[in-house]
UniProtKB/TrEMBL annotation, chains A, B, C:
Enzyme class: isomerase
Lineage: Bacteria, Pseudomonadati, Pseudomonadota, Gammaproteobacteria, Alteromonadales
Pfam families assigned: UxaC
Catalytic activity as recorded in UniProt: D-glucuronate = D-fructuronate; aldehydo-D-galacturonate = keto-D-tagaturonate
Protein name: Uronate isomerase
Length: 477, 477, 477
């Protein structure tokens, strides 16, 4: 028989009664604050078109790379989760592609126990209880009931994207779009009667990373879209600035850069022009490409000072580590793996140039936790422009968030951090993720209060800032 | 006066009453499960010959590199612990070699306080109380009593290896033998009336690592033993496959590979043959040797798919760091030091080739804890073939195990891990080590239950799996 | 209104009543032990001249790089804290230099909330309460009262350096001086009637690091001061040995070496002479300089065996990361950033040569916490000469100290560590820093007692040793 499912009001707080009570009091004061989501990957067309979501599987299973990776790690092929091989000439294993969403849901349900102890379990249970009113832990036996209940609910008006946005108490949410995106959905939202604030963020990797798929064609489109000649580096920069202004018009307050490393450079004008021409010749080395990306971070910083967009750097991932999976199924299927990342030498050119500039803001993230105490907290605790992004991706979890606060706070304080990012395309999980962050921050503060490192009054103010003000300030929202 | 020695029933559980009680309940359900020991270094001749052990010093002090290293670090020369310099022409310090085991025991006893706070203390106190019924903390004053009590007990029938094996409730234990071992002890055990399950594991470093002492002669023996011509790479591989089948016949279910790094390669057939010939010429560079080791991991993976032996990789140790100690006293004297280890790039060739193969299983270990969250949990949470070995060597300790679960679980879950390995040649400490692992797992689960991340019922099932099923499944036992 | 300020007697102890009570009992037994401060940066002239300190700002704000860095990170220019640009031709921002110490204090006070959760907050609150009797948390509103109260107190006899030294119950304090220092203040203290023990430590980086500012002139001075011809490497070494003996005469028991890495070398005599001549030619590469530093660590070790000075190595910092800040304001303004550091390969030449020598002692520190379990605890747990320095600089904080004990103890034990270093030039904060260390050690021991890894009697002895004996022994005090 399935276990009863419920959300304990004290979940994620210490079982020590002193800490638990302090955490509970802190949490009570901030739990109902609106959600500020300055960085994420929801689809703006949801909010623009406001169509009902289709079914449980398409909404909750297939777009969530946390789910895909864990299921795949237990030998469930992506075909069994409804994904079609894109190239049957290579590595076709003859595995049939499952097309019935209910069957896929059953596969997921019968493996739900694999997620015990992971944040996925916490997020989904929150969604199951709070959004869909489920009362049993998901398992093979109740898979169909679950599927039908959720899918039926999704057909109703109160489960349309805009209704959920309001129900979730979202004050503002940022999506992320490539530099060439026409932002038609954001435009539509802006022109509509709906008052929800959905903004974009400028993600130019596809036109700044020479090794990005289709880079050369992307540059041609960039020139077309902006109607700027990009034969020179200056022209290329002008066209990027042009796009940034367009994104800003559509509400963007930030840019985002996802390079393999945090390398930056500060070349002379001649060097930059020569490097750009090498890159444009398409006859460039891996080191050329790397230097170009490095220089482009510094150029983007210069533009941030000009146009006021806050810069975000998300480095340190080996994308698409599983080559044949990538060839068959493409990106974002759960095969991205963090790598050791270096910041002190790599960021120095950029920070020496702009790190003390009063108009510059750069938010740096890491998947290599060894940098929290060694590099990032010390850097953030010195450079005025640099703030530390929250525990990211694999680390936006109870233990990950705890380590983040324990390792960052003593050197950088609370006020060199920027609040929480949900960074997700799993729309329904957004309140769950913010709830975990709020609880873990309160639990951390409760420990500092319980051993007299902070007064409870100080902790109250900090909890409010971590939940609300810091994100608003850091991202100029 | 010596302190009273006793083992508290709640040891290693949180002092928080809520967590302590949950941990106690979980532990009560699994504490008596049989010991599954899929990876270790006990001597198979003990079980084959079933002779009494000699004395306290020879059994408990001299083979334990944890003891040797700590005593050495306080200036006690190995000679004082009974070790003879093997080459008196080099670095002979004129220190006399102690030959009286009782005197050596006294030296150990009077320095036993050095181990406070280390797992050695926990393991040995467990042995002293549970195996020998001691009632005082070991110190200089009671050293002789200790020595005599233990040595006397060891002469009795109930302290013979087979009797202890049964008393320890060991369901199966794996030893580790080099590729050229004739496995006579395992054969003898198999052919005997005794029903204890003692299996071997295939450790081929001495014939796959060109820099292993005696590598070239080892290859000649390999050819002789298998009666296979190894002039070509194909012949060499065939002879290794031959040995693997022999080990499998003698009960092996796994192989083990202890390289300095986790590097793997996937060369073409021509490249492999050429590299092999270079290695055989004995005129090879360090890089050649490294590439050969890297390629051999991939070859071993291919053979695992063929013969079903589970692969284990234990990388990242600088062996014999203290050169003169090595020259005088040889390997395994406590001078092996972990080094920073990289997995994401290094394992990619192997994982891209076989990481998604349904018949392949590889268990990866680390001594570089920075990889838990950054590299290993993400890799294990994606590749079907890859499971994560438990906290290893310097880390099979309360704090080490806690960090392992805290850092691995959120990304890889519980079910991409493989239960506990005692990995020891200290036979008497095996129950103590498993007990520490069981207690720490229960303590970790109790924290998750206490803050409502798991229900107690879920935790019970997981505790059982961590203690018993995962090791049985992962190692095909 | 300002919050009430008080120091809770149980601060930094766990809120769990069992652990808190054990910690309290342990702490009660060691809290009044005299302060042994074997490594730090106080100014010996304070104790030699025994003049009153000037005012709150000059004593508490301006010399403290923890304060400067955090304030700078929130956009407060150093000019606003009273620092004059040294070169107005470069990067002069026209920011006026504040000269009124009270105005600077106000700036600090109104940003004091930034330090919440950092050790600075703990140290300063301790000083405010215990040294100056303040009763409110520092903030903008009470800034002037604070300034006036502190500044007035500083004018009185009981706040003179020698009086504070006695009031702080300091048994011995070591300062740090460059190799060319004439140690006049130490001489004066020695010759005075005052009995306070203020000793020096030999810091030769300015004459052993070819990339140190003014290296070549420093060598010329070295030759002059020692009256030794340094044209050969042997002469250079003799002059260094000469300085070491002078420092030893003035009370030094240790040397200190602050290189960018932990690299050591063991070159032949010819190689050393050739390298020295290259360095003296001033026409050397970065690699030459690095090799010279590496060799000099080994030479210093040899001299330590000769003269008995304990060696300290503090590697792994990128000094003066912010180039323009350095050009304008010089060293030690809060822009030093830790970098990843390697010990196993780097220290091997030195450790292989002297690591087992009975007369050698070397204390190694790190700012890269990943080395605690991976490299440093294993090395300290093997080599007799090597002991582990305490949690250092960015890590001499509650969480930093906790991680240190949790990660070091299981492999190296307590007795391969050396007690606490305050390592500060902030004289008033010394008792606060030692108090934090004592409390965190007691809290850590209390956890081990509470889960039955140690008896309370064992913990009492260890607490005493961590607080007092280990530092005395390790530094031969």
């Amino acid at each position: 028989m399935a276990e009863t499912l419920s959300l304990h009001p004290d979940r994620l707080f210490s079982s020590d009664p002193i800490q638990r009570d302090i955490a509970g009091r802190l949490y009570a004061k901030i739990k109902d604050l609106p959600i500020v989501s300055p960085h994420g990957h929801t689809d703006p067309s949801w909010f623009a078109d406001n169509e009902n979501f289709s079914n449980a599987t398409e909404l909750l299973v297939q777009p969530d790379h946390y789910l895909l990776r864990m299921l795949f790690s237990f030998g469930i092929p992506l075909q069994a989760l409804g994904f079609k091989n894109r190239d049957l000439t290579k590595g076709d294993t003859g595995i049939p592609v499952e097309t019935d969403p209910k069957v896929i849901w059953r596969t997921f349900a019968s493996h739900y126990y694999l997620f015990q102890g992971t944040p996925t379990n916490i997020w989904l249970d929150y969604v199951f209880v709070n959004v869909f009113g489920m009362k049993e832990v998901l398992c093979a036996e109740n898979a169909d009931t679950y599927y039908e209940t959720i899918t039926a609910a999704l057909q109703t008006p109160s489960f349309k994207p805009q209704a959920l946005f309001e129900r979730f108490n979202i004050e503002v949410i940022a999506t992320t779009e490539g530099a060439l995106d026409d932002l038609r959905h954001h435009k539509k939202i802006k022109q509509s009667d709906w008052n929800g604030r959905v903004i974009t963020a400028f993600r130019p990797d596809n036109v700044t990373d020479p090794e990005f798929e289709g880079f050369e064609e992307n540059l041609i489109k960039l020139a077309e879209v902006t109607n700027i000649n990009i034969d020179t580096f200056a022209g290329y920069l002008a066209s990027l600035q042009n796009r940034r202004y367009y994104f800003k018009e559509m509400g963007a307050t930030s840019t985002d850069h996802g390079h393999a490393t945090a390398r930056t450079l500060d070349l002379s004008d001649d060097e930059k022009e020569a490097l750009y021409q090498t890159i444009r010749s398409t006859n460039f080395s891996a080191e050329d490409a790397d230097r170009f990306r490095a220089q482009m971070l510094t150029e983007m910083a210069a533009m941030s000072i000009e146009d006021g967009l806050v810069m975000q750097i998300h480095p340190g991932v080996y994308r698409n580590h599983n080559q044949s999976l990538f060839e068959q199924f493409g990106r974002d299927k759960g095969a991205d793996i963090p790598v050791a990342t270096e910041y002190v030498n790599n960021l120095r050119p950029l920070l020496n140039k702009y790190g003390s500039h009063p108009k510059f803001k750069v938010i740096v993230f890491t998947l290599d936790e060894t940098n929290y105490t060694r590099e990032l907290a010390p850097l953030a605790g010195h450079y005025p422009a640099l703030k530390l992004g929250p525990a990211w991706w694999f680390h936006d979890s109870p233990e990950g968030m705890r380590r983040y606060r324990q390792q960052v706070t003593e050197t950088a304080g609370f006020y060199n951090t920027v609040g929480f990012n949900d960074d997700t395309r799993a729309f329904l999980s957004i309140p769950a993720r913010h709830d975990v962050a709020r609880r873990m921050d309160c639990a951390f503060l409760a420990e500092l209060v319980s051993d007299h490192r902070l007064s409870e009054k100080q902790a109250e103010k900090i909890a409010y800032d971590l939940t609300y003000s810091l994100a608003k300030d850091a991202y100029d929202l």
